[in-house]
Amino acid sequence: MILFLTSCGEIKDFLVKDSPPPPPKASDPILREYVNRFEDLYGIRVNVPINFSELGLNHAGVCTQWASGYAEIEVDETEWHKFNLDQREQLIFHELGHCVFSRQHDNGTLPDTCPKSIMRSFMFNSFEIYKCYKPMHNYYVDELKP
After folding, report:
1. What string of H, E and C letters represents the secondary structure of the chain?
2. Other CB atoms closer than 10 Å to residue 140's CB: what's the count?
3. Which residue from 7, 49, 60, 90 lies 20 to 30 Å from 121 (Cα-Cα)?
4. Per-domain boundaries in the chain
5. For the CA atoms of 89, 90, 96, 101, what is the dihedral angle to 10 degrees?
6. How far apart are CA 96 and CA 6, in angstroms?
């Protein structure tokens, strides 16, 4: 098994597995709402199941990809309930950035100290959501595109 795991503050993150994938799953409707928003913004269809799980260790989400091409996202339900709506979107878009766009982490900052990318290895805090994510939403959506 090849494993890429970076302790990401609150985003567990990205795993690659050589073992056979599990049977396809349906997505949780609460999480699917954010996937639908992602699909609308990027004009694509996403075939990545996304469900709540118990990840532990303050990790909020993980994208797992198998060598076969199958991918799925798990979101820790306890962590999910700690986040506001914009943080939830940032988390789902981050994990979809891994699973759909094959993006890696980018912990850079912009000159105004805002995170350079949704692909930062940890969640935007409340201050960054209101200072950066909300007013610069179009920038973050465009920056995520491959």
Report:
1. CCCCCCCCCCCCEEEEECCCCCCCCCCCHHHHHHHHHHHHHHCCCCCCCEEEECCCCCCCEEEEEECCCCEEEEEEHHHHCCCCHHHHHHHHHHHHHHHCCCCCCCCCECCCCCECCCCCCCCCCHHHHHHHHCCCHHHHHHHHCC
2. 21
3. 49
4. 13-144
5. 130
6. 17
End-to-end CA distance of the chain: 26
pTM of the model: 0.86
Token pair listed for 15: 């795993």
The whole-number mean pLDDT for each consecutive block of 10 residues of the chain, a chain of 146 residues, reads 33 62 80 96 95 88 89 94 96 97 96 96 95 98 94
Q: How many CB atoms lie within 10 A of CB 122?
A: 17
Please give the Cα distance from 36 to 14 (Å, whole number): 21
Strand ordering across the sheet containing 71-76: 13-17, 61-66, 71-76, 50-53
